[in-house]
Design a protein that fits this description.
Strand order of the largest sheet of chain A: 6-7-8-3-9-10
Helix content of chain B: 40-55%
Number of helices of chain A: 8
Largest sheet of chain B: 6 strands, mixed, barrel
Bound molecules: adenosine-5'-diphosphate, magnesium ion
Protein name (chain B): ABC transporter permease
Distance between the termini of chain A: 20 Å
Radius of gyration of chain B: 33 Å
Distance between the termini of chain B: 29 Å
Helix content of chain A: 25-40%
Subcellular location (chain B): Cell membrane
CATH topology of chain A: Rossmann fold
Pfam family, one (chain B): FtsX
Oligomer: heterodimer
Family (chain B): Belongs to the ABC-4 integral membrane protein family.
Radius of gyration of chain A: 18 Å
Strand content of chain A: 25-35%
Largest interface: A-B, 37 and 29 residues
Number of domains of chain B: 2
InterPro entries (chain B): ABC3_permease_C, MacB_PCD, Macrolide_Exporter_MacB
Number of strands of chain A: 10
Number of strands of chain B: 13
Order of helices and strands of chain B: HHEHEEEHEEEHEEEEEHEHHHHHH
Chain lengths: ~240, ~400
């Protein structure tokens, strides 16, 4: 589903050149749930941004569903994000002036989905994250965990096959974090491929496959094996 | 993709900036439409046809202090000298000068005083049979004065003036049925027969309630203070004006020739206030429009910097750049439409107030409509550059800022 071959990303600022990713190689298959860990500043977010076509990369090749992302123009990338990818951010990134219903509606409107179909999907997604009764609330009226669930509903509403989450539980306490994780696992069982960056090693361990980014590169293959073992052990 | 409803809802939830801008747009629309109308009104007032070839006419004052001459005779001599001067078409002693802001007005009555009857206000000039030619105006009916009809005197006499030439405006007001030529009107108790009609010429006061009513009365009462009007051939006025003082003093030296001014110059002096007001209004509306444009520009920039993360998130969720631009355009159009709706109402009320207190004419709806359209276009223009900037915000902002 996702394939990166020797992808490199360099940030050029006035003073320094940062190699955020170097010769990054990764293959993600349909239906996987991958937890990405690594030290701060190692390039996890950069990887996620490139995977989600939020920023360009300098070298290498990135295929998403067989489409060479490097050859797409801005509109094509926007459309592809809208159709294939759901984003979940550490800061939730709900739009403060829109109520929950309208927030979830945003990507659906960009896709040009008709009003009654939008309504059906939004209500279904709100139901799924357990916030159906709060559709008219504004984000600031909710707790962090609830906000993140709305963000997940927004990511789900477009029925993306690929969910990218950057420290989705980073701003949440452990109870809420576990709820969000359970939600993601449920979504993964329903068929979506998930790549989740996290600091929380306990949560990471719950993911069937773990990868570690160190200094802009995929590190330690053994973790992958370890994850495999857990996967087998849990009988999934 | 126009998403009016969520934009409107979002606006309603954080409306302070929007409401301020809305009010600003309303005020701009109200003031600009009224000011534009007043300016247009002034422009047509200033550019109105006066009936005179203003560029070819000038006047001067004669103040005679010498007492060793007969003034009437002297003026006869002066006039014939002036009329022979190279470049001069004609010249005449004129009791007042058109467009100058100074003159005499009285009323022409259908019945002799003290009988009651239709009475019409009019300005009048005491002037001789050279009046029509000197002022270059158009006799459309009847005839000019004959030389015999002109009464020249500076003594009390039994002889009376008994004819007049009037403007069409005055004639029509006295005789609405159009049969006034040849009729008698009364100037006080003095009967005057209307023998000629001038198509159009303005009196001394453009702002008079009857600026078009003017009568020539063929009567020359020589006095130590007099005004003379001169018409020159086109393009020769300046040269004649330069020579006039010497020529007059050569004829007779115990007098002062001054106030040598073109008719256009007199008109400009008379209308100076109007032109000043017009300029101030133009400056005012320019500043207002600029401030409003800047306000829209600034508010959009402010909104963009406040919503950087939101814009990045929208882009991440699949908004094309054009969707971001259209978001800001639609948002602005919404604020602007509400502001314009309020502005139209305010403009009408302001127009009514100006009408009531400053006797300005009724504001035509077309002025409000054109102003509203112009303000709308200007606001779209003001928002376009910031909106394009917003569209260029990188979607990666969504993950890079907390
Ligand atoms: N926009 C940017 N400009 C310059 N340097 C950046 C930018 N974004 C990230 N970096 C640098 O790239 C490296 C990787 O960053 P990031 O991918 O955010 O790391 P992580 O998410 O693993 O903490 C860091 O050294 C960071 O400082
Ligand atoms: Mg990060």
């Amino acid at each position: 589903m996702l394939q990166m071959n020797n992808v490199s990303k360099v940030y050029q600022t006035e003073m320094v050149q940062t190699h955020a990713l170097r010769d990054f190689n990764l293959q993600v298959n349909e239906g996987e749930f991958i937890a990405v860990t690594g030290p701060s500043g190692s390039g996890k977010t950069t990887f996620l941004n490139i995977a989600g076509m939020l920023e360009p990369f300098n070298e290498g090749e990135y295929l998403l569903d067989g489409v060479n992302v490097g050859s797409l123009n801005d509109n094509q990338r926007a459309d592809l994000r809208n159709q294939k990818i759901g984003f979940i951010f550490q800061g939730f990134n709900l739009i403060p002036d829109l109520n929950l219903y309208e927030n979830i509606e945003v990507p659906l409107r960009y896709r040009g989905i008709k009003a009654n179909e939008r309504k059906r999907r939004i209500e279904q997604c709100l139901e799924q994250v357990g916030l159906a009764s709060r559709a008219k609330h504004l984000p600031q009226q909710l707790s962090g965990g609830q906000q993140q669930r709305v963000a997940i509903a927004r990511a789900l509403a477009g029925k993306p096959r690929f969910l990218l989450a950057d420290e989705p539980t980073g701003n949440l306490d452990s109870l809420m974090a576990r709820q969000v994780m359970e939600l993601l696992e449920q979504i993964n069982r329903d068929g979506a491929t998930i790549v989740m960056v996290t600091h929380d090693s306990e949560l990471a361990r719950r993911a069937p496959r773990n990868i570690q980014v160190v200094d802009g590169q995929l590190a330690d293959f053994t973790l992958y094996q370890g994850a495999q073992t857990i996967k087998t052990a849990s009988g999934v | 993709m126009l998403e009016i409803k969520p934009i409107f809802n979002a606006l309603c939830r954080s409306k302070v900036g929007a409401v301020l801008l809305l009010i600003q747009i309303a005020i701009t629309t109200a003031i600009v439409s009224n000011a534009a109308f007043i300016i247009q009104d002034r422009i047509s007032y200033l550019n109105q046809e006066t009936g005179y070839p203003e560029q070819d006419i000038f006047k001067f004052n004669v103040m005679t202090f010498g007492t060793d001459i007969n003034l009437s005779q002297q003026f006869e001599l002066d006039e014939s000298m002036l009329r022979k001067m190279p470049g001069v078409v004609d010249a005449a002693l004129s009791s007042s000068i058109p467009l100058s802001g100074g003159g005499s007005a009285s009323s022409f009555n259908l019945k002799p005083a003290p009988q009651e009857g239709l009475s019409v206000r009019t300005a009048y000039f005491f002037i001789d049979d050279h009046a029509i030619n000197t002022y270059g105006v158009n006799l459309i009916a009847g005839r000019n004065f004959t030389e015999d009809e002109v009464l020249v005197t500076n003594e009390i006499t039994q002889k009376r003036t008994n004819v007049t030439i009037v403007t069409k405006a005055l004639l029509d007001e006295l005789y609405p049925d159009g049969d006034g030529l040849g009729k008698i009107v009364y100037f006080g108790d003095l009967p005057l027969k209307i023998i000629g009609v001038i198509g159009k010429m303005k009196g001394p006061w453009l702002k008079d309630s009857k600026p078009d009513n003017l009568a020539f009365i063929p009567y020359i009462k020589a006095a130590s203070y007099a005004q003379v009007a001169v018409r020159t051939k086109p393009g020769q006025r300046a040269a004649v004006m330069k020579e006039i003082e010497n020529a007059m003093l050569e004829n007779y030296s115990k007098r002062v020739i001054n106030n040598i001014k073109g008719l256009d110059e007199l008109k400009n002096e008379y209308t100076a206030q109007d032109r000043l007001m017009m300029r101030m209004l133009i400056v005012l509306i320019t500043i207002l429009v600029l401030i409003t444009a800047l306000g829209i520009f600034g508010l959009t920039l402010f909104n963009i910097s406040k919503r950087t993360k939101q814009i990045g998130t929208r882009r991440a969720l699949g908004a094309r750049k054009s969707a971001i631009v259209s978001y800001f355009l639609v948002e602005n159009a919404l604020i602007c439409s509400l502001g314009l709706a309020l502005g139209v109402v305010t403009a009408i009320l302001l127009g009514k107030m100006l009408m009531q207190y400053f006797s300005v004419a009724a504001l035509p709806p077309s002025y409000i409509a054109v102003t509203a359209i112009a303000v709308f276009l200007m606001s779209l223009l003001a928002v376009l550059a910031p909106a394009k900037r917003a569209a260029n915000i990188s979607p990666s902002i969504a993950t890079r800022t907390i």
